Amino acid sequence: MDRIRLVGGNSLNGEIPISGAKNAALPLMIASLLTDEPLVLENVPRLADVKQLERILENHGVDIAVHGRRRGADQMDGQRMTFHAGEIVDTTAPYELVSTMRASFWVIGPLLARMGEARVSLPGGCAIGTRPVDLFLFALEQMGAEIEIDGGYVVARAPAGGLRGARITFPKVTVGATHTALMAATLARGTTIIENAAREPEIGNVARCLVAMGAKISGIDTSTLTIEGVDRLHGATHEVLPDRIETGTYAMAAAMAGGDVLLRNARPEHLQAALDALSQAGVHIGVEERGIRIARNGNGLLPVDVETQPFPGFPTDLQAQFMALMTMADGTSRIRETIFENRYMHVAELARFGADIKVEGQVATVTGKPTLKGAQVMATDLRASVSLVIAGLAARGETIVNRIYHLDRGFERLEDKLSRCGAEIERVAG
Ligand SMILES: CC(=O)N[C@H]1[C@@H](OP(=O)(O)OP(=O)(O)OC[C@H]2O[C@@H](n3ccc(=O)[nH]c3=O)[C@H](O)[C@@H]2O)O[C@H](CO)[C@@H](O)[C@@H]1O
Ligand SMILES: C=C(OP(=O)(O)O)C(=O)O
């Protein structure tokens, strides 16, 4: 199994290109199931999760082609890919394919809307909580679907004539169920109103793609989405937006190691809460035409309290990275995780560096220390894994991060991007 080896102490200086967002690319790929015409996606990141979803879509009959990299003036290097679901040959998404990745469950919406039936294994994904699917089922039932659980599969059937438009009021904000209801509603009969919809930028990115495919959606980027169902959608070309979680991760890496880094193509409006927290910690944030500049030269880090919230709040997907940063702050910070009940798996691993963190319920209290020491640590989930890399960048001596297949799910060329900015980091095969 591959490992990451790094030696801490170097500052980071230079530019890091931000890749296309995993959490937008995955639902965009799934949207290709809604039409029998090709959907062309640009700036698709090369990630293990993208590969896994390709397998799932191919099983449904989607033809997938990669047209290479686009290296334009803005130096994006994502892939341009075509997804062509000319004919859906299978409406089952099997356990072997779905169990490793949460987002793969989301095929249920398009399959049900286009084919009138879907049989999808209950999902897997990062082990950060129980992660139920009740709100997906609630939304689809509101649209007239009949649903049963059979042998670990969700079996869903649309009523005669197809899904019906409905008013769907989510009792809590959920990204995945919003994506699913939105996609299903594009082909439903009549009007669907989704209330308390998630407002994460990835949902806006998907909604704009659906509009380019012929969907009628208003209220994009707000918590009320109104969708007028249409008979069919057509092909389109659409670009995956830059990854705000990757952006925040490298911002915290630069803040931790010190130095001056331009995060190219990053969009500040997509992570304002995280940038505010960094700024309060004493990190310089500069918004430039080409991206976001993060600098910390010489000054220490101040402790900052954060609480994770749905967008536009502080993202749960940056909680572990921010905690790593706070382990070296000059004082005590409190981090409250409100989205997932078990997203503190990194705490025990950060302790191996000498970090002082105590968890009580939802709250982690982090008492900063002037130095961390390199250690042998184990990646437990995607964002937890990268928090260990961040700690290792500033720790004295050598750090080995084991089980990095988690990292490969969501970070493209991580060690390459960091080493180009001066980090001593390499992937060790075996
Ligand atoms: C691929 C992708 O985009 N994953 C992101 C997505 O995950 P995901 O879509 O799984 O997260 P949700 O927004 O759905 O989850 C939010 C909360 O709602 C709960 N819930 C969700 C659905 C449901 O049917 N019932 C229910 O109770 C969840 O357990 C959680 O407590 O949003 C999360 C929250 O920003 C991010 O951490 C993940 O990176
Ligand atoms: C939790 C994440 O992914 P998933 O929802 O696919 O488990 C993530 O991207 O941080």
Report the mean per-residue pLDDT as an integer: 95
Main sheet specs:
4 strands, mixed
Q: List low-pLDDT spans.
A: 72-76
Estimated helix fraction: 25-40%
How many domains make up the 3D coordinates? Answer: 2
Ions and ligands: uridine-diphosphate-N-acetylglucosamine, phosphoenolpyruvate
Which CATH top level class of the largest domain fits? Alpha Beta
Which class of secondary structure composition applies to the elements?
alpha/beta
Query: Can you count the beta strands?
Result: 24
CATH superfamily caption of the largest domain: Enolpyruvate transferase domain
**Number of H/I helices:** 14
The CATH architecture classification of the largest domain is Alpha-beta prism
Briefly note the CATH topology name of the largest domain. Answer: UDP-n-acetylglucosamine1-carboxyvinyl-transferase, Chain
The rounded distance between the terminal residues' Cα atoms is 5 Å
User: Using only CA atoms, what is the Rg?
Assistant: 21 Å
Tell me the overall shape.
elongated
**Strand order of the biggest β-sheet:** 22-23-1-24
InterPro entries: Enolpyruvate_Tfrase_dom, Enolpyruvate_Tfrase_sf, MurA_subfamily, RNA3'P_cycl/enolpyr_Trfase_a/b, UDP_GlcNAc_COvinyl_MurA
Main location: cytoplasm
Pathway: Cell wall biogenesis; peptidoglycan biosynthesis
Family: Belongs to the EPSP synthase family. MurA subfamily.
